[in-house]
UniProtKB/TrEMBL annotation, chains A, B:
Enzyme class: hydrolase
The Nudix hydrolase domain, residue ranges: 4-136
Enzyme Commission number(s): 3.6.1.-
GO molecular function, one term: hydrolase activity
Protein name, entry field: ADP-ribose pyrophosphatase
Organism of derivation: Rubidibacter lacunae KORDI 51-2
Domain of life per record: Bacteria
Signal sequence interval, chain numbering: none
Key words, A-Z: Hydrolase
InterPro entries: Nudix_hydrolase, NUDIX_hydrolase-like_dom_sf, NUDIX_hydrolase_dom
Annotated family: Belongs to the Nudix hydrolase family.
Length: 146, 146
């Protein structure tokens, strides 16, 4: 019944720190390759809803209990991760307090949306570009037609 | 690199026939168990974007070239399919012309949204309930917290 010929589902979470001016977001510096900065996130476990995975990964990677606001968009371009085909369900979430790096995160950055660290891994530059259009102008991402 | 311990990603498509009064939607009677009515859809292939899978499944199952309007919502309750854990990326799409049953579809129903066939398989009754709230009132689905 298991078919390895499907992309692996993941979640990524855009966490806004809502008790700070300009609602900065949290990025993590990856401990493992590909090195660089990324949204907190990870694989969805079998038997786990994507919402549960998003809250678990936020706790494990940046030590924050997040309040999920909405599903933002699914990103599934086969080239988005060079290692294997994954699809990511991206969530918007709100949190308060101070994130700490844990698990696969080597360091944390608390970033205003106009000043993001580089390099950004995977398709996270595209996701964050789409997020800014949505946050600033209310425009949802285009569908991808690779 | 393949990890069978993730849910398998699928797509389902809510296809509105936009050249008919009241934009009815297309449901298919399943050829294989679980028997009953369902949205057209199926598994996402490795190397395939979810948008590509949605258009492919629409062609294969109901013989229509659809115009994807938007990603509606991801449904991932571990209980949504009794056979194994799947998650579904549900799309809204528009099409014209006459659908025909093919592939895994035994029959087709063209349904106004207030008159759906029964039984509906999987969590498709819930998806279609959420769809009506969105179509009629602009209210997006709640996140699931199983």
């Amino acid at each position: 019944m298991t078919d390895p010929r499907n992309p692996a589902p993941t979640v990524d979470i855009i966490v806004e720190l809502v008790d700070r001016r300009d609602r900065p977001i949290v990025l993590v510096e990856r401990r493992f390759p590909p090195h660089g900065w990324a949204l907190p996130g990870g694989f969805v476990d079998y038997g786990e809803a994507v919402e549960t995975a998003a809250r678990r990964e936020s706790r494990e990677e940046i030590c924050l209990d997040v309040d999920l606001i909405e599903q933002f968009q699914v990103y599934s371009d086969p080239q988005r991760d060079a290692r294997k085909h994954t699809l990511s369900v991206v969530f918007l979430a709100a949190a308060t307090g101070t994130p700490r790096a844990a698990d696969d995160a080597k360091a944390i950055a608390i970033c205003p949306v106009w000043e993001l660290p580089r390099p950004l891994c995977f398709d996270h530059a595209r996701i964050l570009h789409d997020y800014r259009r949505y946050r600033d102008y209310g425009i949802r991402p285009h569908l991808s037609f690779p």
